[in-house]
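Researcher: Next sequence.
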Amino acid sequence: MAALWLAGSAKNDNTGILATVALVCLSFSIVNADSKAVTTTLTTKWPSTPLLLEASEFLAEENKAKFWYFVDSTQEIHQGDYEETDTSYYRYILQKAGEFLTPVQINLLKFALSLRAYSATVQTFQQIATEEPPPEGCSAFINVHGEKSCNPDNLEALLQSALERPKPYLFKGDHIESPFRTELPVVILYGEIGTKEFSRFHKLLRSRSDVGSVNYVLRHYVANPSEDKVLLSGYGVELAIKSTEYKAKDDTQVTGSELNATVINENDPVDEVQGFLFGKLKQLYPEIKEQLKELRKHLVESTNEMAPLKVWQLQDLSFQTAARILAAPSVDALMVMRDLSQNFPTKARSITRTVVNPEMRKEVEEHQQYFKETFGLHPGDSALFINGLSIDLDVQDIFSVLDLLRNEARLMEGLHDLGIQGDELHDLLKLNVQPADSDYGVDIRNPAIYWINNLEMDSKYNTWPSNVQELLRPTFLGVIRQIRKNFHNFVLLVDPTDESTPELLKTAEMFYTNDIPLRLGLVFVVDDSDEADGLKDPGVALFRAFNFVADELDNMNAFQTIISIYGKVKEGEKLAIEHIIGTLEKDFSNVEVTSILGANSAYDRNRKECNNYYKQSGLGSLPIALYNGMPYQREQLDPDELETVTMHKILDNTAYFQKVVYLGELNNDQDVVDFVMNQPTIVPRINSRILSSEREHLDLAADAHDGVDDYSHFAFLKSEEKSAAVANSISYLSKRDDKYIRPLTFWIVGDFDDPSGRQLLYESLKHLKSSNNLRIGLINNPSSEPTQKNTVVARAIWTALNTQSVNNAKNFITKLAKEETAKALAEGADIMEFAVGGMDNDAFRKAFDSLSLDFILSHSSFCKDVAKLKGGQRAIISNGRIVGPLEENEIFNQNDFHLLENIAIEAAEKIKTKIRMLAVEEDFASDLVMKVDSLLSSKSKGEARIDLQFFEGQFSAIKLRPKEEQVYFEVVAITDPVTRDAQRLSSLLLVLSQLVNMNMHVFMNCQPKLSEMPLKSIYRYVLEPEITFTAAGSFASGPVAKFLDMPQSPLFTLIINTPESWMVESVHTSYDLDNIYLKEIDGGVAAEYELEYLLLEGHCYDVSTGQPPRGLQFTLGTNANHEIVDTIVMANLGYFQLKANPGAWVLSLRKGRSEDIYKIYSHDGTDSPAGTDEVTVVLNSFKSKIIKVKVQKKPDKMNEELLSDGNAENEGFWESIKRGFTGGPKPEEMKLDKEDVINIFSVASGHLYERFLRIMMLSVLKHTETPVKFWFLKNYLSPTFKEFIPHMAKKYGFQYELVQYKWPRWLHQQTEKQRIIWGYKILFLDVLFPLAVDKILFVDADQIVRTDLKELRDLDLEGAPYGYTPFCESRKEMDGYRFWRSGYWANHLQGRKYHISALYVVDLKKFRKIAAGDRLRGQYQGLSQDPNSLSNLDQDLPNNMIHQVPIKSLPQHWLWCETWCDEASKKKAKTIDLCNNPMTKEPKLEAAVRIVPEWQDYDQELKQLQKMFQEGKMNGLTHARTEDVTSTQDHVPHVEL
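Model: Next structure:
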């Protein structure tokens, strides 16, 4: 209120404001402290990619044509195209892209460039180019089937023998100029768009591609990469306030950073401090800017020192914060929300003085009831919806949100272009038009099927109950009910001579003999020609033998005879005539067999019918199995699989039959088979082309004023304009000539002067007679150059459609579609001879004689350029969906049209209902339904949208109204302003409001009666709507997290929250980011992070068992070096993760046991085509990449196990460069057994614990003769430690490795840094280390070792997977703190010891074999959902699991800690741990000096080494020395991913 009064009262009186400012300034004591700041940046490892190339990738995602138009228009940028500044270069890109994009898309392009979203895509191509490698001194080059050149003049020579060389591998993301033609050579151009060298190649290749002589592929390649790195955004940074209960801060002095003035310059347009809106005040009163700055500084310093609040002050903070936000003007409310939530710890005290409006409180509570019932949201929970689509910000990163905005923009702009706006537009968006995933089946009521049994008639089933109500009788789970009704019908369509037939028939027989309630049917598909002879063709012979026995006895006996015949066929043989004759002569000795089987057999009935049924069903290749008409998948026909799958189908469908009986839809009087066959999913014919889930749609949303009558104009239209022009000019046929909105439009495409085209037309007209939902349009696709002579039928059809009534035209066209008509016309008959009654002959004749060929040429151009059809090819376009091209002899008949209508009608009817409300003329409405259907089907992903029109939120919501007459996004957010979600959401919503037109509601979901501080961290979300520039026109310093005016008394820890698939590391900073204490720093802290890797995640299963193959190893590398990084598959979800950078990588099974035992069976989500052994994975995006891999044991390895005893993988253990950086002696100098090394694992975060860690390492090295290898968790190590460790390794002669693992997204996330580190100590032991490491010791960083740890490594764990030391019990004064002696722990442990996690030994072989890691993660997942459990995660979890994963208790002397152990036991101690003391709270450093005499000596020794290192660094020696150290691991060529 102060600010509003200040601004208001002074509007007319500048002296007033000056006096007020002076007065307020005087009321504060003078404070000399400077304001302190912390900044954080995150860059990529790779060089900054040109924005022009990133913009081209944005357009490529819009569509291929736009990409190539953009490349053409920017192929060479000349000096005069823009001024030599970054701003003008940027504007030039936007201007060029703007020629192909709408205003909304341009805004999203600006956002994508700000995010650098396509930098990874450009870098992928750069990595592929590097693999080539590029010829020397080339800035652009071509590769023609492996031959490269920098000179365009060499193209001809390279093309001459190109097709004799192997074709190059093309990636899914490659830019291919025209539709790919396999018969043409492939020319790949590597170059940078906009350069002269690129342009020379591009013009040549574009012309060669246009004339159809090459496949032109373009890949980005920047010959001279930038020296800058890409500054990223889309991540959060928090400064969490640390508890100082135990002082854990290093006393080593480090200077702060000089922060860039431009980085700190805050241009917040609101800038609210204690109710004063300084942003507004500076605008209103620029002349007193300096005084306002002073006032702001005083206010900040008075509020920033954060004294704790009383409990009663905390209670209403959530509502009070919401009230403060809602009191701001709506245009500023989001900024106020961001300021309050992100700086909450510093604002909380002033917020406690806010009064809450009772009406707001009441409305919030009313809304919360609705949120709980509708979305399952509780007070304090958050949700975000864009156009009704739910966005989970914990799962979806900003790049996924950008994709969603783009897709929604395409949809909305398409609808807007069709004249649909506002609420009607959003109503249509909410329709789910994606076809349901229902399976379709064929009708089995056909005489071609030989039924072997009949449950309702056969005496075999007389004892079974026959009432359908029996289905409702209770029974045990999984029991198959035996009821005398044909509920379950199993039909086999087989070729009797096929090798698979005997096994399938045996399975059918097994069903029969075991009394499975299944009616069995057979269809024999054999030669159906008239001259077929059973004495020559075994298939025909078997068919006639079956008929003979069936006539003599019955179908069941005939079936048994067939089984007997197949019984005579030995393994490896094929069915022969002799087998059939032999069986018949034995069973029917009195019959002349040759008369049964021969050419004039009387037992030939149904042979043609069987074949017709098979062909008519459209079911594909034999054999085929049907359950109630539904076809089985090919892989389910394996005999073992078939039995299981059929049983499952019976059980699953029993539930369906129970439902329909219960609802009264099926009763005892109905025929069950008729009931099943009358379901809408049963169709006369299955057509896989129609049912395919991969669908292409035309873009029909363009604004159309053109027609097809002027080919010279039509030829130059863009593809979407051609579609619109064709749609504009079509006259339709329908069942009746009436005013009716027809939801379905079929365009029949073909050459109607050719028999195949006429056949398709005729079948469509037959179907039209039975459907009033349909209208049919005709598009002619001539096979050859059109002339007056070869287009008679096409011109007659066009004329009739444009001059006659619908009924007359239909009758006339039906006549023209008949072959006899075409024949007569070809022989010179006059077209008028075929006129039908009622036609206006004069109008027809006049129009026919004057009709030009322009419409045919336009149609032909549309078919070639838009529908991608060759001349004469047929297709059906159903509401914009292209079904085709049909193969030359492919049947597409009336039944196929029936199926096509069946699957399209549901969505079309939904759209029709909405379009009818627009009250437009019927023909236009039918057009609109077609166009909307095509748009929604092609662009909508089919996710469920939630209807959010629930209430306005008069008192408890921030509302932003959209600009009129423009498309707008419906954005609804639900949040509590004092939660982590609100900290992130407020920034995102602010950026969205600057990017797109929004109708936004942010509903407050406050928590009542808080008992503790809701937010204990200051937060920044790094996100900008557009790239920013300096006043001079160059790029500004880029996205950065800025923490300004920071309070100086708290101790902060910096945590960076990145998208799930990013692995980042801290670089360059010398400051301790774990313990930021601004009071002691001059200047500020500049934290720099680097995106070290993008994560490739996957799930792997063994196809034979369906289980994850535990211990299986994958590697990721390049074609030159397959093993750069490796990983192990977990049993939990078969999960694995690999780290890489943008590029194309090869995924393989690791050489050794993994490759020996397994082979890759299939893969999904990769770049390779299905069925290839070599799996290529392309990482070309900042978004998550998750693949699925199925593996299978090799036939000769079926009984071998990966994790068998004594067979752990040895290979590559010492070459551990594959996993990190290794220092120490060269591997070739240390030919050691793995038993000769002690592997020690430790974790540390913050400079103090890293100092302890170095001392622990030194204490280990001083007491052991055996070589030591240290394994450190890289995730949290500081740059200082990583820089120094190679030198320490060289000095003391140990090996080390930095291991990394990203916390899997499916495992419950911890948010507190300390708890995350605890999790890493215990949860990933089975996957952090190579299989060759048999045993690992964990030693806490703050431990001092006084013995040779070889003794601990060699200790017998007596079958347990790990050994821990129990907590000491000897220091009696600490009894009150021993929580494990009472309550839950005493009950759970049942007399066992509670163990400490500071030191443990793990037998990794045993640990993996018993799946201990998977069990621990499973238990953690269950317990960690409760915030009150696992308070000491790394300790509580193994102790909690002691009954499932046993712990070997180590002798007490292995770990002594003063807090719990008495002084007498200290002299026997083999290690001393500096445990926290809950009684004295003594700081760690003081305790170390007091408790461990040798600690200071170690500390001094290491300080001397560090001093030498720093001096060497100052003198420029370090670089050489670092190279020397790291070269010990580079004896194998190492490619940095």
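Model: The first helix runs from residue 2 to 9. The CA atoms of residues 378 and 740 lie 49 Å apart.
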